[in-house]
Q: What sequence folds into this?
């Protein structure tokens, strides 16, 4: 415990370094803006902005991107409330009660509730993060290649079991990501693999950023262009200092709700397939179910704003826990952060704590401060954000496209990557219209090289015997959990069919 | 095109891609065990592509059984309004990339932004012109000057020599 406090103190000092602190503030601002824009969420922002961070040292870069992630979770509520359109998928549940409040002329109450609930969510989850991360990293030091491989399979199984999307399409998405990761020179044999049409551009492989920016930048913009052709109606936000103080006093009304949302969000956020969107929906459902006046939900109950907003902030912190300690991202956004860490020359996983403590603890320290900074920015700048939201999409879209193109070019400096990015963007947009999930592919292309490497090392250790994955206790546990998760949707479907058969049966049997 | 047709087209296309990937994985690579060095370099992509093929077959089977909402839907896949804005955007992006390869990024950006803001977006002259000039200048300052990552300039490279003299 003392150890943790000591490290945390050093982390806070690290985060106060001028460059880190400055990047944190800029990140919070950009994140709030990105979250507030309909069609842009944390994952889009982090994907598009990652190439820009090559300018600064890794610690400042991850602090910046984590702040963007964080700010976007706050910002999502702004458009949910004032426009009635979720600013990001993570803020969908905020619309349910935030919009009615805005319609009743209480937009300021809804916005301040969202801000304070987010702050509670962020604070609770970062404290949990600080307590859980070091022991988890120590535990993970025991992992060998077979454990790493099984853990990654478990991460993919969560998409099948909990993702809620069509199962064959989810599997397709995972596997295409893994296959795309194998393109290029094979590190073990040194031979080129899967070079289509012998294009030289495939030699350096398919950078995960090309897929991430393609789908989450270009594809997402195409999707939003299609969706937002209609007019958006902004609700006026009136606020005075007196009303602000009144709103502040109401925190105690929803403090308990926000605490529950935070805990739920944090633990749901750890799971790769779940994360902030289902976390916030679950928190909303749970407060409604536990309330003694459930009929007030959906009519403008501040608790209906507090629950999802605390949960989505907590989930974003929760999803960083497995990324930092195990090297397994807990969300598509953290998958991109993980890819960034590999570019910066850091090996994600438990060794990070011993090899680069300034990086890990600097990040943790900055998250405490980012939480506070975003709260202040959020409350102070609400009028500015509301003005920004009236911008027409035809101004924002070309700016995002330009950022996508320079960002996609910067890592490898190859025109080939840009064409591939456009192809992924268009294909991603079309497949998304058919309900193919895209997040598993992004996660898979980042984890692909690590998964293949650990599989090969495991098989070398065992001389080709697959039994190595079953005979080691930890890897067996991961594998069993993975199989259960994988089969879970089938079991649910089978039980439902059984119940239907039973319901249909009684007249004939009796 | 209905959603149902689109689902079939996508399923067939992805099946063909899976088969192509399986074939490419065996192309001069070993998919079995290589004594001394472990699994061959084609093994991992080959078996993954095989799983991909199975998932595509499952998608097609479910299409025939009308098991997914997409396989039952007779709604229009992309309506005329969406096709217009998305189609124009795609063509503009492809033109921007073509332009970047030959006449350079910055000149193409001027054309792309002007087209998108003034002609497609119908924004005022002032907004359009200011953004059309400001965005490429910002990109130049950030990438070329701060990060020293040269963007492709194609045949417009000589135009930048005086600026290089100034900043490097």
A:
């Amino acid at each position: 415990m003392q150890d943790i406090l000591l490290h945390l103190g050093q982390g806070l000092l690290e985060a106060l370094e001028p460059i880190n602190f400055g990047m944190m503030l800029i990140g919070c601002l950009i994140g709030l803006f990105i979250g507030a824009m309909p069609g842009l969420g944390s994952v889009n922002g982090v994907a598009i902005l990652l190439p820009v961070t090559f300018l600064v040292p890794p610690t400042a870069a991850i602090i910046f991107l984590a702040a963007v992630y964080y700010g976007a979770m706050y910002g999502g509520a702004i458009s949910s409330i004032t426009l009635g359109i979720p600013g990001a998928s993570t803020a969908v549940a905020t619309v349910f009660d935030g919009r009615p409040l805005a319609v009743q002329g209480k937009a300021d109450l809804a916005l301040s509730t969202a801000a304070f609930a987010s702050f509670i969510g962020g604070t609770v989850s970062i404290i949990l993060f600080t307590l859980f991360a070091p022991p988890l990293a120590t535990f993970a030091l025991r992992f060998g290649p077979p454990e790493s491989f099984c853990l990654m399979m478990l991460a993919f199984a969560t998409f099948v079991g909990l993702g809620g999307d069509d199962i064959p399409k989810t599997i397709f998405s995972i596997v295409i990501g893994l296959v795309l990761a194998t393109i290029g020179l094979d590190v073990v044999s040194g031979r080129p693999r899967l070079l289509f049409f012998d294009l030289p551009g495939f030699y350096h492989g398919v950078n995960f950023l090309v897929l991430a920016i393609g789908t989450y930048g270009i594809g997402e913009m195409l999707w939003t262009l299609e969706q937002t052709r209609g007019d958006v109606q902004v609700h006026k936000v009136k606020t005075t200092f007196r009303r602000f103080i009144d709103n502040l006093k109401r925190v105690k009304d929803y403090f308990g709700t926000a605490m529950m949302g935070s805990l739920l969000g944090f633990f749901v956020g750890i799971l790769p397939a779940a994360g902030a969107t289902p976390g916030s929906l679950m928190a909303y459902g749970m407060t409604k179910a536990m309330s003694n006046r459930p009929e007030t939900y959906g009519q403008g109950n501040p608790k209906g704003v507090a629950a999802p907003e605390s949960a989505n902030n907590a989930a974003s912190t929760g999803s960083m826990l497995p990324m930092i300690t195990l090297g397994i991202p807990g969300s598509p956004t953290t998958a991109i952060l993980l890819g960034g860490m590999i570019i910066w020359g850091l090996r994600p996983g438990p060794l990070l704590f011993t090899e680069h403590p300034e990086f890990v603890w600097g990040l943790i320290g900055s998250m405490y401060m980012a939480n506070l900074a975003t709260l202040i920015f959020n409350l102070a700048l609400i009028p500015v954000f509301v003005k920004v939201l009236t911008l027409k999409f035809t101004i924002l879209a070309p700016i995002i496209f330009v950022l996508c193109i320079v960002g996609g070019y910067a890592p490898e400096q190859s025109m080939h990557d840009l064409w591939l990015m456009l192809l992924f963007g268009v294909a991603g947009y079309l497949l998304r219209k058919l309900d193919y999930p895209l997040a598993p592919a992004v996660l898979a292309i980042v984890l692909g090289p690590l998964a293949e490497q650990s599989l090969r090392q495991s098989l070398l250790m065992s001389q080709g015997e697959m039994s190595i994955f079953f005979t080691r206790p930890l890897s067996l546990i991961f594998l069993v959990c993975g199989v259960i998760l994988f089969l879970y949707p089938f079991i649910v479907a089978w039980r439902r069919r059984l119940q239907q058969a039973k319901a249909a049966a009684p007249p004939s049997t009796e | 095109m209905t959603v149902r047709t689109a689902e079939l087209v996508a399923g067939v296309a992805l099946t063909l891609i899976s088969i192509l990937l399986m074939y490419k994985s065996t192309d001069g690579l070993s998919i079995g065990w290589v004594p001394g060095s472990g699994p061959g370099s084609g093994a991992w992509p080959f078996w993954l592509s095989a799983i991909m093929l199975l998932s595509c077959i499952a998608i097609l089977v479910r299409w025939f059984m009308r098991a997914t909402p997409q396989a039952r839907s007779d709604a229009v896949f992309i309506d005329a309004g969406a096709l217009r804005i998305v189609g124009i955007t795609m063509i503009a992006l492809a033109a921007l990339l073509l332009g970047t390869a030959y006449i350079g990024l910055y000149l193409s950006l001027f054309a792309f932004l002007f087209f998108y803001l003034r002609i497609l977006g119908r924004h005022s002259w002032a907004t359009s012109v200011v953004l059309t000039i400001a965005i490429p200048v910002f990109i130049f300052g950030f990438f070329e000057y701060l990060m020293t990552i040269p963007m492709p300039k194609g045949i417009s490279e000589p135009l930048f020599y005086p600026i290089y003299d100034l900043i490097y």
